Amino acid sequence: MVRLAAASLAGTAVEFYDFFVYGTAAALVLGPLFFPTFSPVAGTLAAFGTFAIGFVSRPLGSALFGHIGDRYGRRPVMFASLVLTGASTVAVGCVPSYATLGVAAPVLLLVLRFLQGLGLGGEWGGAVLLTAEHAPERRRALWASFPQVGPAVGFLLANGVMLGLSAGLSDAQFREWGWRVPFWAAGLLAVGGLLLRTSLAETPQFRELAETGRRADAPLVEVARRHWRLVLLTAGALAVGYAIFYAVSTWALAYGTEQLGVSRTVMLVCIMAAVAIKGVATPFVAMLGDRFGRRPMCLAGCAAAALWMFPMVGLLHTGRPLLMFLGFTVALLAFITMFAVVAAYLPELYEPRVRCTGAAVGYNLAGVLGGALTPMVATASAGGSGPPWAVAAYLTAIALLSLGCFALLPETLPKRAPEPAMQSAAA
After folding, report:
1. Which end of the chain is more exposed for a tag (fewer CB within 10 A), N or C?
2. What distance in Å separates the CA atoms of residue 21 and residue 249, rounded to the nearest whole number?
3. pLDDT digit string (tens) for 228-249?
4. What is the per-residue pLDDT across 19-74, written as a single tens digit (0 to 9) for each?
5. Are 31 and 43 in contact (CB under 8 A)?
């Protein structure tokens, strides 16, 4: 289990590094480089538009790689998705700017971002299922949470590289070539992730399906016919997590640097420190999910998120590092209260024959609802000199929507066997 958890964590860290480095670049430099004819705000919106395409393609990647995972095994998914995401990320770092290539430059950016999302849409299902289906019942949330630590590690890697380059280079150097370095580094990280995954074995549950001939012939069709309500509920339930994370990691970065005049370095440090705390807290919160249940943790996280969005926006608007850090940290702890347990929760909601497709499609549809739109909606509604309360209202509404969806989902925590003393008493 340690080897499986480490390999899954490393792979998701690499893939989310690829995904997040684009978001950071979109907040900092892609607007003026690839949309120079737009105003600063419109350029940022356009850059976030290409950022959103990655979320749109993630459910498609879930369907494609979910079919592979349910038909041919979870293990092949982990290799193919990593290769696709890594190659497309390296290619983003090679795309010439608008000044060199004209309109073809943002078009290429769009295509490569689409491929990034396609690969990431398959990664989550493969990595989580490989861990969850090997894990012992009573510790499933704990072991399955390690792939959920990967996004935090990937974010810290991506932004750490960006922070180092931003601090060590002049603005002109950073805009000319410095921002490309993190994309090129993705190639080395992908190779390392592939090497870690070479020794992984297929899951017992898939092997049983293959041996008994009970694999789904068309997993997506079966999910659409028999589990469509569950897919929609899980997508709606998880939307708030994406909305919170990308409001903090992407929109707040752009808002702080462009609207509040806070330096890139200060904003990145505040966000990275909050993400680091979230990453460390993940397995500990998952242990609570093994003790008290998946659904109660998710309901608690949603309620906390709904209560905290207005204070978070108010603290961000102060532009003071410690207050911004506090706002981000509490928001991300509310987020991880849900997302630490969903790696066990979602697979348990779906039967094994369509689990890779159903769980991954639901998870990544939530990204479209909560992650793709949030930076654009927040940027468009954050005008004026006062705190952007419209952004807080938008995030609170998503939290309440997710709370309602979680309330309609069942609990899946495996029932514990009665203690020996209780059995004797019953006898």
Report:
1. C
2. 11
3. 999 999 999 999 998 998 889 8
4. 778 777 777 777 778 877 776 767 676 777 766 787 788 888 888 888 888 888 88
5. yes
